[in-house]
Write a structure and sequence with these properties.
The chain is 27% helix and 29% strand. It has 129 residues and is an alpha+beta fold.
């Protein structure tokens, strides 16, 4: 995997501008912040942690780790709540994913299919062959 940073561009904080990867691709569906029984975690940051843990579990089934993540798209219902918790998000991300910074997009949405969901994240990973 190679991180792509055009000459003269500032290094982004917490994500990458682009990634070049070769191998088998794992696509993880939009994960929400519930446990195996369908119970949602309380609050945005707690749901975020659960989503990342669920994502890591799915990746493991495909022989991948968080280091293989190349792209994440986050759908957040309350962008103000997200912005107010950036430090907590960063800590949770580092705790679960580590120091891998894939390409990312954060999108504000008015609603998600699961009523209790405050955030949903899709992930793509590449396992080099």
């Amino acid at each position: 995997m190679k991180h792509l940073l055009p000459d003269g561009w500032p290094r982004p904080a917490g994500y990458s501008n682009g990634i070049l990867a070769k191998g088998e691709t794992i696509y993880v569906a939009g994960m929400v912040g519930w446990d195996k029984s369908g119970k949602f975690a309380d609050g945005l940051v707690a749901q975020f942690r659960r989503i990342l843990e669920n994502t890591v579990a799915v990746l493991k089934e495909g022989g991948a780790t968080p280091a293989n993540i190349v792209r994440m798209t986050w759908y957040v219902k309350d962008l103000d709540d997200y912005r107010d918790n950036l430090k907590a998000f960063g800590q949770v991300y580092r705790d679960v994913i580590g120091k891998n910074y894939p390409v990312m997009a954060v999108v504000g949405v008015t609603d998600l299919v699961e009523v209790q969901a405050l955030i949903e994240i899709e992930t793509t990973a590449v396992v080099e062959t």
